[in-house]
Design brief:
The chain is of the alpha+beta class. It is 12% helix and 18% strand. Helix 1 packs parallel to helix 2.
Length: 218
């Protein structure tokens, strides 16, 4: 969603009187958004309304991306208040620790490509997410984010260290393998459901766990 440079924290329709016509925040559409909401708050409501209007199937939905909003924000709560699962927390990870960069995904201060390889310029906030939108109550495939460290899973961050794919690409001065100031976020989702191969009537006597990975790297 919108960043600060996109007037994300400005009120909908805001216009800077010093430069009329050049820096105008988008108008927030009614009735989804109120006139006193910021651009990014309105975008969060639009995303939620879009998903809820179209998510009709028996399986969970996945919403992933760079929200440019931290977990204590109104934008984040717009999703979690609807029962959407933050897969990072649902998998058992702790919240971002700004002092060390652990469990954070963004916020580096990089001025040159070489800075991406510096461990001193660590991330200090978490703004990249994979949300699991549960299906309707009683659906056969609820979707369960797998705990961090469970066998065969990779829920959590990946490529979370400087130049993470070395030596395939190599450390400086060779080309950087991961030219991004964000860490990636990964999810392993387990969808228990009836196994049709156990009984002819399709009810099954056990649960099958289909592992599906959804990864986002802004």
């Amino acid at each position: 969603m919108a960043a600060h440079s996109d007037l994300a924290t400005a009120a909908c329709g805001f216009q800077d009187p010093r430069v009329p016509g050049l820096f105008t925040a988008p108008a927030c559409p009614a009735p989804t958004c109120g006139v006193h909401e910021t651009v990014r708050e309105c975008q969060a409501k639009q995303v939620a309304a879009f998903v809820e209007a179209r998510h009709q199937g028996p399986a969970p939905a996945i919403i992933a991306g760079d929200l440019n909003a931290e977990p204590d924000s109104k934008e984040y709560r717009e999703f979690t208040s609807r029962g959407w699962l933050d897969s990072h927390r649902a998998a058992g990870h702790r919240e971002c620790e700004p002092r060390t960069g652990e469990h954070c995904t963004a916020g580096r201060s990089d001025k040159h490509l070489q800075d991406l390889e510096s461990p001193a310029l660590h991330q200090h906030k978490r703004i990249d997410y994979i949300f699991v939108v549960p299906p309707r109550a009683g659906a056969p495939y609820p979707g369960v984010p797998q705990a961090a460290g469970a066998a065969g899973t990779r829920s959590g961050r990946f490529a979370a260290q400087p130049n993470p794919f070395a030596p395939a690409c190599g450390a400086a001065p060779l080309p950087i393998c991961w030219p991004s100031d964000h860490s990636g976020t990964a999810l392993t989702l387990c969808c228990p459901g009836p196994r049709s191969d156990l009984h002819g009537d399709g009810t099954g006597a056990d649960a099958a766990c289909a592992l599906d990975q959804a990864c986002v790297s802004p």
